[in-house]
Amino acid sequence: MNPACAEVGAGKKSRHKDKKEKKMKRKDTTEHHGGHAEEEAVHKKKKKKHTAEKAEKADQERKPTVSIAVAGSIIDNAQSLELATLLAGQIARAAAVFRIDEIVVFDSSPSAESGGGVEDEEESGARFLIRILEYLETPQYLRRRLFPMHKNFKYVGLLPPLDAPHHVRKHEWSEFREGVTLGGDRSKGTQVDVGLSKNVLVDQVLEPGKRVTVAMGTNRDITTDCVREVVPPSSPSKETGSYWGYKVRYASNLSDVINGSPYKEGYDHIIGTSEHGETIISSELILPSFRHLLIAFGGLAGLEESIEEDINLKGKGANDVFTSYLNTCPNQGSRTIRTEEALLISLQYFQDPIRRAG
Ligand SMILES: C[S@@+](CC[C@H](N)C(=O)[O-])C[C@H]1O[C@@H](n2cnc3c(N)ncnc32)[C@H](O)[C@@H]1O
């Protein structure tokens, strides 16, 4: 390995030193015993996977996250494919602007799930929203490989890009890059397209077509055979503080939003938003210190209807389901604030309380 490639990412020197020492030790043992190379390789791969999983888990446990839940029904109310696409684009932009970690798109009932299963069938508003949100979050150079053509992408080209830090341009250098794994010769690892003029090599053997986050290390010469490292997707924001995009999740109803949290310990503070909520000015809102905050936004009929429609929440009211139920835009001059408007208003409203809680 090119020595300049050994140091992948800042602050990892000691980890690499340890690894190197262990590698040397193992090499000695292998030579001594003669020909356990295959076993060694399997062991090494398993260990690396285990370490990455452990790091991802520990990481998830540390960093406070903000999730939003949005009713997929907002798409069903859009009057054309073009308007539905623009609406999805607004949700994605709001999420990126406010550094949202997770967007949960929820349906009103489990039966709404069915749309989108068969190619010719109309997909549900929730499925449509998820498709566009995932597309927009993905760096442009990866989209062709990760998203097969679909009729619902017809107007996606009209949308303004997220222009998030992980959408790194071809001529830019970045400590981390998002990539997609490629097929071909696996003798040295896996080739990854990270949106540069040449693919890079990572030492893990990974199946083709997977999105990965690559630590590019310090060697900027991509013409060499330098081996880069696949890291957990949370590493860039943890190590550089940069926003690194959102994850998207489908939930069949509101209770699934809450109970299906990807975080082991679940959401520890859940806010519902509504014109019927409590009015507290932003500077006086005290949020408890949280690890995983969830802020929910309803559709045309609001979150109270989503609660009523949810058989798992029978007999419950907004104050039973949410830790806080808030009106973030008191004295509204229009009879209704649309969800996409409420998203921008509310996420701005929560900025300071979130910062103070952190
Ligand atoms: C068309 S509104 C639904 C109207 C409904 N009467 C309600 O509960 O607010 C769609 C969504 O926008 C958000 N929203 C609308 N007005 C709001 C306000 N004043 N404060 C906070 N969120 C609001 C809520 O998430 C709501 O579910």
How is this structure best described in words?
The chain folds into 2 domains: 3-35 and 168-240, Beta Barrel (OB fold (Dihydrolipoamide Acetyltransferase, E2P)); 63-164 and 253-357, Alpha/beta knot. A hairpin with a 6-residue loop joins strand 4 (190-193) and strand 5 (200-202). Strands 8-2-1-10-9-11 form a 6-stranded parallel beta sheet. A 5-stranded mixed barrel has the order 3-4-5-7-6. Helix 4 crosses helix 5. The chain has helices at 13-33, 37-62, 73-76, 81-97, 125-137, 140-146, 235-240, 254-259, 302-309, 318-321, 339-357; strands at residues 65-71, 102-106, 176-181, 190-193, 200-202, 211-215, 227-231, 247-251, 269-279, 292-297, 324-327. The chain starts with 12 loop residues before the first helix and ends with a helix. With 358 residues, the chain is α/β, with parallel strands linked by helices. Residues 6-35 and 111-118 have low confidence and may be disordered. S-adenosylmethionine (SAM) is lined by residues 273-277, 297-298, 300, 302-304, 327-329, 332, 336-339, 342, 346.
Question: How is this fold's topology laid out?
Answer:
Elements: H1 13-33, H2 37-62, E1 65-71, H3 73-76, H4 81-97, E2 102-106, H5 125-137, H6 140-146, E3 176-181, E4 190-193, E5 200-202, E6 211-215, E7 227-231, H7 235-240, E8 247-251, H8 254-259, E9 269-279, E10 292-297, H9 302-309, H10 318-321, E11 324-327, H11 339-357
Parallel strand pairs: 1-2, 1-10, 2-8, 5-7, 9-10, 9-11
Antiparallel strand pairs: 3-4, 3-6, 4-5, 6-7
The chain binds S-adenosylmethionine (SAM).
S-adenosylmethionine (SAM) binds at residues 273-277, 297-298, 300, 302-304, 327-329, 332, 336-339, 342, 346.
